[in-house]
Design brief:
The protein has 134 residues and is of the alpha+beta class. 43% of the residues lie in helices and 32% in strands. α1 runs antiparallel to α3.
């Protein structure tokens, strides 16, 4: 787990990608996806593309409501990650908000990694102390 947390922190983006691919279509379907650790959205556009609005991105419920009542949406992607979302001509997710959310998620990864490493060090010291006392 500590390695995953360190990887997450190390691979956080430092800027919005310069090359974003735009996909536009009519909103066909929207559904919430609940998992053990986070929620996300899955939505489909008329061009038969399905997108996942990851739970680390901001305003999940607002985006769900906007997409549920929308006619058209434009999704701006880099490496299959959503960086901007426009719904009926209004920017719902600006790229700067997506960047900030991804950076905060990476910081949580670092905190998790450091906590797990601290626990591991404490357990090693306790085990060594216990072994010496027996």
């Amino acid at each position: 787990m500590a390695c995953v947390g360190l990887w997450s922190w190390n691979h956080q983006p430092t800027q919005v990608p310069t090359q974003l691919t735009k996909q536009t279509g009519y909103v066909v379907a929207v559904k919430k996806i609940k998992s053990r650790y986070s929620d996300s959205l899955e939505f489909e556009l008329s061009n038969q593309k399905v997108f996942v609005y990851d739970g680390i991105l901001p305003n999940l419920n607002t985006v769900y409501k906007a997409l549920s009542n929308a006619q058209q949406a434009s999704v701006y992607l880099s490496a299959n990650e959503i960086w901007q979302l426009d719904v009926d001509g209004h920017i719902i997710l600006p790229p700067e908000s997506a960047l900030k959310a991804r950076q905060e998620n990476g910081q949580y990864g670092l905190i998790l990694a450091l906590m797990l490493l601290l626990i591991a060090v404490i357990l090693v010291f306790v085990a060594i102390k216990h072994q010496r006392s027996t």
